[in-house]
Amino acid sequence: MSGWVDGVLAVAAVPPLAASAYLGGLALLAGRPRPMAPGTRTRFDVIVPAHNEEGEIATTVASLLALEYPGDRFRVLVVADNCTDATAERAREAGATVLERTDRERRGKGYALAHAYAASLADGVADAVVVVDADTLVSPNLLSAFAARFEAGAEAVQAEYGVRNPNASWRTRLMRIAFTLFHTLRSNARERLGLSCGLRGNGMGFSTGLLRRVPPRAFSIVEDVEYGVALGMTGTRVMHVAEAEVLGEMPATAAASTTQRERWERGRWALVREHVPGLLGAARAHGRVPLDLAADLLVPPLTVLVALVGTGALVALGLYLRGLAGPVGVTPWAVAVACVLAYVARGVALSGVGLRALPDLLWAPVYALWKLTLLVRPKGRAGEWVRTARSHDA
Question: What's the predicted TM-score (pTM) here?
Fold first, then answer.
């Protein structure tokens, strides 16, 4: 009897094992790459898309104007998009150039960015543009590290993306680990392999030549990933700039987190349906860059993968202990568990939280269950720019 049971278990293990092995392989290659000597020649437009961010925008602009880069080689452009508060006034007072946009039909970050890109290209001043969210602090070397890549021939770059308020709650501390897994670990490994790290929406940069060659037409709720896919279709690699960092504020409560996570999770599933076939087709012409982006989209969120691997492993173990299954059926699930554990352990180590993370990890099942419920909630308006509540709003 164990023969056919082993066969069923082994076949069922193939998808979760493939996803787990992919993540485990990235964990083994996730050493931090060496920084490059800073550049100084590239001229930048730093674009800050903002929707009702009067409480944060001045701090972000001040962080950008304090960058360690020649002041005559960059400017800060704030796009006050469909704002009903004093975002534009606060940004001007802080020293930014402000572009005010009002369009009640075409709403969302993607449209705000398209407006700013068009303005930058029309001015013809910048060699590259950088996108920084309105609730973000940046490391002083952001532009010099980006300039080093652009001056070496890169067309698209992505800074390290971290959590600005990791100690606000157990939720933000878990998000710091999650960001390390998804951004740091995966991006470091891809950089070592010469692959595209993809775009994260915050701390990304593009040469103006690339914006003209591959115009951003990404207006979904995950416009950053969508444009990264479009670049992958052409074989364009996004370089990871590990030594430069942008820190975004994360919501500290479940109520504040819901709209943000719902957008991210749903938008990613939509991209899987719409773009994986195209990326697989593009791999024939452009090789491993689009192929890896397709693989990254196909790997389910860690919460879903852990649920699949954990359930499968428990079933396989139970059948084995009852003598109904043998090593052939159990081994693939055991390997999948080992790969997931290696991936998570490597992420915790890279996050720098140390033993302080252990109590917070006890909340991981609650956090995972909450994330899974977002996938079955009623859908909101696609592309709508819904401002995420900040910690200070309370």
Answer: 0.85
